[in-house]
Amino acid sequence: MRLAVQNLSFNYPGHPVLQEVALEAEAGELLSLVGPNGSGKSTCLKCLARVLRPVGGAVYLDGRDVAGLSGRELATRLGYVPQETPQVFPLTVYEAVLLGRRPYLGWSVSAGNRQVVEEVLRLLHLEHLAARTLDQLSGGEKQRVALARALAQEPQLLLLDEPTANLDIRHQLEVLGLLQALVRRRGIIVFLVLHDLNLAARFAEKMLLLHQGRVFAAGSPRQVLSPENIRAVYGVEARLWEDGVGLQVVALCPTEGWLPGPAEAGIGPANGSRGNK
Amino acid sequence: MRSKVLMVCFFVTALSLLPLFSGGCATETAPEPSGPVEKAPVTFVDGTDQEVQILCPVDKVVSITSGVSEILYVLGSADKIVARDSYSVFPPSLEGIPVVAESSHSPNLEAIVEMAPDVVIADTMLKDDLRARLEEAGIPVLVYTTSYPEQTELVVTQMGRLVGQEERAARLVEFSERYYGLIKERVAGLEGEAKPRVYYEWQKPFHSAGPATPADERISLAGGVNIAGAQPVKYPDLAPEWLATRDPQVIVRMASRTEEGEKMQALRDEILGRPGLEQATAVREGRVYVMSWGLGTGIRSVIGSLYWAKWFQPEVFADLDPEAVHRELLRDFYGLELEGDWVYPENGGQRQEVGGRNS
Amino acid sequence: MDPETEVRELKKRGPAAGEEVARRPGGQLGEQKRSGPYIHLVGRRRLKLAGLVVALVAAVLGAVCIGSAGIRLGEIWDILIGAVTATPGEARPVAQTVILNLRLPRVLLAVMAGGSLAGAGVVMQGLLRNPLADPYILGISAGASFGAALAVVLGVGLVTGSGLASQWVVVANAFVFGLLTTFLIFGLASLRGLAPETLILTGVALGYLFSAGVSLLKYLSSHEELRELTLWLMGGLVGAKWETLTLLFPVALATLLLLLRYAWDLNALAAGEEVAANLGVNVARLRRNGAVLASLLASATVAFTGIIGFVGLVAPHIGRFLVGNDYRYLVPVSCLLGALLLLAADTCARTLARPVEIPVGIITSLIGVPFFLSLLFRQRRRWWS
Q1: What was the ipTM of the complex prediction?
Q2: DSSP string, C50-116
Q3: Which domain holds residue A157?
Q4: Domain C129-307 - what CATH class?
Q5: Global pTM?
Q6: Which tens digits make up the pLDDT trace of C173-192?
């Protein structure tokens, strides 16, 4: 599997969201997409997942344009987990994961498909919840069910929008560790949107930093996460160092100073300019 | 659709001309005070047992019940009707009078009050609070159930008092009592099996009339037994299967005043072909009759009762020709020739036709 | 534990998990487990489905046996056997007429109408992901009824007219207006960021609009047309005839079977449009085809029975309570429940005050609402997330 994205652009009426995004990934790579709020991360992921149709550019999987794939072809190649899944009529956990097998199913569910579901459930420690309905789960459990559903699709490319957003630190580590293992052992590509720069730097070999709809920097975490880039993109002063775990980022303060509240409390750089206005 | 628009236009025009009409009436009646007619208060006890005091004879009447409009016409007082309901269409000359109500159920109070009539006459479809509103406005209201046979005399007599035509009213009562008397006399001896089971239907399929309704009383009067006469509901929707097993021997279907000829035939055909009734005696013997509401209320309800009597008891009334009586009534009291369709089949069905020729 | 050890631990554990995944060759497995939570779940659902089928058959037989005509069970049995074997039994002709031409068609019409309305309701709930969706609330029934009324008034005699051909015209017109309403609702639903409440409010508003249209037709009609119209509007289940059934049955059955083909797609849609699209569902086509089929189902029913509310809303929710939200089971179960509900209501309507008929709407509400409310309170589920 090879993923290639060329000149991907997307507009919402009136304003461009993505402009000429390009990237490449090989089998066995874990990529993370980082950037501030509104920089186009989720939109980028949706264009890759063909949830949104880009206005320009194309996404190729093994040289085939995803725009030309049938629904079933797409579903067996590419798994997508959005940030939130609405649950109006909640399925049981088992059924929710079973949905991932839809592209492989006729009417009834064969034993082989059931086995895939059950293994994915075991993998994500969801077995004991199998009979529960989704509305009875915690946020983290729901997140794992959504991931399990995408894994049950057995895709070669997994697109995840903030998969750790609702997880406690232990589950964050477990989920990212699992993804890393999947990438290594099964040679799939995992492409994540992450907010946490430390986690992104630690688990992803490749990183894309998005700024106002454009790729601001791409490469290894060490190349992308420089104090200069972080200042330019996030508007934040940061300190970086490396230890045995990985690249560590600590955001110190906004480059332009604190908002009035903390400034009065005497935290941060001497009386930020905004506080005096 | 076009004709409906025209009709609406017509009503609008008629309503806008209304002040002219009432003005005209006023000038006509102006010389009367100097004439011999003295107005005097008369107390009426109307069909709902209400005492109502009215200065009689009256000049301006709003009649929103068709039976009374017809009676007023017969009493030679059609010119005193300043407004009517939409069903007051017989005799046809009434159609020129402005309409202020679809029926007694929905009168236009504003228009009525504006006309300041001497009296409003309605049937029991007029709700009590609407009646009260009219009375608050100083307009006396008389309410009758013109389809009860025994109220005919009361209504005609009181209308005679109201417009100062007592003598004419008495003749009319005498006419109607004569034939009601005939029916009662001949039916009196009939008992049990001799009275057919009658299914009465109006408005829509399986919609009938229960005990103490005008239809129930008229069925008994004419020598039949109302199939729905023991039901606890006044106007019940009957279960089709129950009706089928009760095997009606005669079916009477009411048609609205505007349904004539082919439409009456269509009503009858629908009953003849209705699932579940194919085995009913009435259907097998062709004793399914359609009658216009025109013969169901007011003075001509006696004609309706004659037809029913003949349908229910063809042998007993073999010598009776309701159509001839109808013709006589129209000629002597209305000054009209019999026209149009009032019942279907015309000559009372095949059995009756045979009976009629034998007589 | 220092970070280095932690990482080593993690790395030890991670690949181990991966090993487990990697062992499995892409989903095609030879060795299979016979039991499991899912088999158990499906087994229970099949059992419930079968139970409902048995209950419906029993209810149909029971409903055929009671009525205001007072016919003995033995005689009913003779008549039914006679009808099946086409041999005239010894039953009275009037009893035969009552059972075969009145009671049986009416019972079957209740079953078909209840099933169709519930089927339409459950599919609309799924398509719109809205627990309040049903043909009545969304105004589709009112639209269909307006269409049918228009056909009646424009001179297609239902009662006096020429039978089947004109009935098709009424159904077709009902369908056109039902569909029109549906497309309006679904068009609105496809707008971004529209609250589910807005959708329901629009449906309610359209319902009022079409009801007003029917009233206007009544007002403008000549007496003849009006009588036809009133007859038709009040028809309900009383007017059941074999011709109606032979017309409605193929339409309802074909539509339901076609809708069942979308069961998996509806399941996927429950997880959101984006996920459904990722699972290979053509969401736009699903919405369009599903909406057309569901409105056909509802409109055809409304064209013969007039507006019957509540069944289309309640039956699916009872179904969800019984068998969960897998549409492969939910659609048939809802249909069966709708059929049972309307059959029970109509049987009460024609027998409680026999021989006087009580309007069926009164009964559906009287039985259905308390049942539905108790279900809601017992369940305490949040429908909206």
Answers
A1: 0.85
A2: HHHHHHHHHHHHHHHH-STT---HHHHHHHHHHHHHT---SS-HHHHIIIIIIIHHHHHHHHHHHHH
A3: 2-234
A4: mainly alpha
A5: 0.82
A6: 888 999 999 988 888 877 76
